[in-house]
Amino acid sequence: MYRTAASRLKGRAGCRYATSAAALKPASSGGFFSWLTGERSTAPPPLEYPMPGVPTAPVLPDFIEPGKTQITRLPNGITIASEPSTNPASSIGLYVNCGSIYETPITSGATHLLERMAFKSTANRSHLRTVREVEAIGGNVTASASREQMGYTYDALKTYLPQLEKVKAEIAEIKNNPQGLLMEALHSAGYSGALANPLLAPESALGVLNGSILEEVVAENYTAPRIVLAASGVDHEEFLALAEPLLSDMPAVPRPQEPASEYVGGDFRYPSDSPSTHVALAFEVPGGWHSEKDAMTSTVLQMLMGGGGSFSAGGPGKGMYSRLYIRILNQHQEIQSFSAFNNMYNNTGLFGIHATTGSDYVAKAVDLAAIELLEVATPGKVTQLELNRAKEATKSAVLMNLESRMVVSEDIGRQILTYNDRKPVEHFLRAVESITLEDLTSIAHKIVCSPLTMASWGDVVNVPSYKSVSSMFPAK
Q1: For residue 130, what is the enclosing H or E element?
Q2: What percent of the chain has pLDDT over 70?
Q3: pTM for this structure?
Q4: What's the CA dihedral at 387, 391, 397, 399 to 10 degrees?
């Protein structure tokens, strides 16, 4: 059939019609299919007109308005929030204002342990029953812990069953994760107060923590005003009808004052037999998420500085127009990785640069990190093109993340815990778009004027002294 059709096409290649009417002349036999199979016809039917008897596809809108977040607060203080979507699946999360900042010397490590022991045996269900019920409906349950919040989510089919030994393994694995260790060290050295508490349970705490202590932590912190139940892809009224009977009897204990943290700066060095040296320079982002303008500007600043590794397993091209990639990684082959980071909390944050290199080049890497941080804090050193690229990259990252229903439910829960409301994505896109070069320089200057925090791991013999590095910055 196809050979016959091809030969007939070849025979018609030289044909020309005197008028357009000839092109519209109806076929003398069965139309398009008879022509394709080689039967007699005079012209193929034009494709710009509907075929007789064939229904046309419905017209689809060019844009679908995203669902609006609906929020209901129960009398005891629990917040239930949801957002509908066209996605056939849904994601539900329970978020609690409870993290390592609320720990005491007695309860140190409880947050990490609660994360790992989530979805185990309860007063009403055994661990096996929980697993079987989740598997039966194709579910996935996960838990996550941070310094300020805990999250428990349900989404798709995937189940993990970590035990207490997994906690010990994670503590041991942190020694093989220099970047994670440096982040812990920066908080320990840089803050005085609650944010200095470790996010990972100290191994010494595992012998002290028991079921009674964990029950006390939950009873004290998992109270109604500190809980948000958030969902994406559900009908709010139906969701509320299911959730309210389950949560309405939780105690309405007043929400406590968040434990105080003071940024002070400091130095942490962890010698090891690693052939590489990992070093991080960090400063405070004053105000944290509650200073929204500065928080958004520092996010764009991180995107503008960017960075990465000398080798990218995910393929070339990611972030290669960022300042740290162009000015550092492309120019200094001795540096293995060089990237900006931005850890934000409710009232404060950490911004800085993490570098990995050989011990003999670490002093140069520290100098380069200091130069780059000071450059972005100097008027006229960042171009409008760089800023525009960073703003577009930031907006793209936000929108792509929100394509995930699990991220949407998490965003709802964490925003309500932080702001007591859920701001639409358009609000943040406008905030990013409004950032100017002056805003960028201003927040960068505020950052480098705060006390320096340094952390290093590996062969730290050649890491410059804290005093010498600190003297390069305005803060004394």
Answers
A1: helix 127-136
A2: 75
A3: 0.76
A4: -170
